[in-house]
Amino acid sequence: MTHAEQYSTSEPGACPTALSKPRRRNVIVTTVAAALAFSGTMAVVSSPVSADTVSSLRAQAAQVSSQLAADQSRIQAIDGQVQAADYHLSQLNQQIAATKAQQVKDQKYVDADRSQLRKQAINDYTRGGTSNQVTDMFSGNLNANGIQHEYSSIATGNVTATIDRLHTAESQLAATTSSLQSQKAQVEATQSQLSSEKHQAESALSQAQATKNGLSAQLAQAVAQEQAAQAAAARSRAEATLAAAQKTVAQQQAGSGGGASSGGSSSGSSGGGSGYVPSTPAPPTLPGAAGAVQAAEGEVGVPYVWGGASPGTGFDCSGLVEWAYAQVGISLPHYSGAQYQMTAPISLGEIAPGDLLFYGPGGDEHVAMYVGGGMMVEAPQTGYNVHITPIRTGDGFAGVGRVS
């Protein structure tokens, strides 16, 4: 937690410069770096993957994803057309059924009329008369043969007219039915075509998905190798820096007969990356330092929370250090600048697990805890989790402090 954060009312952004641009890349290698820290061995990356390879795989994956989206849209469009065709076909089937039903109904009416007319003609003729207005016109002096002939002609004409109307209705119904059947055939053909197109689209979608899965697997492997290479390189740089610092300390101690170092000034506060060079021997590491390291490592993966100091919930940079040391009975303030003032400055070459690395003027921008093997544990900034990463000793590095 920074001095500015103590009094800020804006959106928390603790440790804003803890991850400067050159160092921000280290965040993505957290998992690999953590594994290196716990194993204590160097990562050996077989078949290194170049950034161009990763970019190419990502471009291919993006292209396939675009094709997948297009295939899915095509299938959705076809589904909509199939639904429309299904609805149209159901309407045609209803119309065809209604037409056929009407045809049957009309036929029944005509058959009934034909039967009734024949019965009426026979009845009137055998009785020799009728009250029917049609046959009344034949009453009088006309002979029976004439009456029979005329009445039969009229009766037959009535039946014929009715049959003619039936034939006309049948022709119309047949034409309507034929038209509906033609439309039905067209809709069924459209359905068959749409079904074929959908099958092709689904096949293309399946192939694109398989391609994407393969590319995703390749990309994941390439990214993992790239991150492993970056982690190994970062750790190598950190170990080289530590080795150089330790060599300097050894030379200074040899030059002074094994006593205190001859450099009495603190060069680390200028941000040069070498840390403090104390004028007296560094104080011994506290027995509880190892416990504090273990506690902090146990919170890897917990999200950064401004002002946080709650295990499993959230930490900011100084909150993590404060809480970790509290687990071994050592009290520290929840402010990196104050922690900087309370710790004993030591050189980078003397760093040991549990020592604190500070960043920014007076250590007021960020603090992390050294865990050994060139690695440190930290709660970096908003949007990141507590992680283990190679130590950083570039711009902004203020020095190393030992809790004593």
Distance between the termini: 21 Å
Strand content: 5-15%
Report the average pLDDT across residues: 74
- The CATH superfamily of the largest domain is endopeptidase domain like (from Nostoc punctiforme)
CATH class of the largest domain: Alpha Beta
Broad shape = rod-shaped
Structure characterization notes:
This protein is of the alpha+beta class and 404 residues long. It folds into two domains: 3-41 and 260-402, Alpha-Beta Complex (endopeptidase fold (from Nostoc punctiforme)); 62-216, Helix Hairpins (Orthogonal Bundle), CATH 1.10.287. Helices cover 59% and strands 8% of the residues. The chain has nine helices and eight strands. The protein has helices at 3-7, 21-24, 30-39, 51-127, 133-136, 144-255, 289-297, 317-326, 336-342, and strands at residues 309-310, 314-315, 344-346, 356-359, 366-372, 375-378, 387-390, 397-402. The chain has a six-stranded antiparallel sheet with strand order 3-8-4-5-6-7. Strands 1-2 form a two-stranded antiparallel ribbon. A hairpin with a 6-residue loop joins strand 4 (356-359) and strand 5. Helix 4 (51-127) packs antiparallel against helix 6. The two termini are 21 Å apart.
